[in-house]
Amino acid sequence: MDCKETQRCIHLFLKDELDWDTAQKFVEHVRSCNECMEELTIEYLLSEGMSRLENADDIDVQKELEEMLNRTMLRVKRRKQLKAGLFMLASMLLSIILLGGTG
Ligand SMILES: [Zn+2]
User: Fold this and answer.
1) 37 C-alpha to center of ligand 1: Å?
2) Which of 15, 19, 59, 101 has CA 20 to 30 A from 76's CA?
3) Alpha carbon of 8 to ligand 1 centroid (Å)
4) CA distance readout (Å), 43 to 11, 40, 67, 88
């Protein structure tokens, strides 16, 4: 994912509307690219700051963004594990059924 694509995804990321494959690439990119991280920070401030303007002092942008990125990566990882787990379960069940059929 390049900078242009990443910055196009910022809005979707903040709305939690990226599919998990794209979300993973997005997080990986902003973590390695200062320019996009900066862009994300600004967008985050704009979207969050507006709705919480009254206590804007309470917003720890860096920390909240980092938590958001971590959460996204964790979710992506879990979903991948779940997918792998389901596949294993399915092939296990299949072999039990097949073995059971011949026994
Ligand atoms: Zn970038």
Assistant:
1) 7
2) 59
3) 11
4) 8, 5, 16, 41
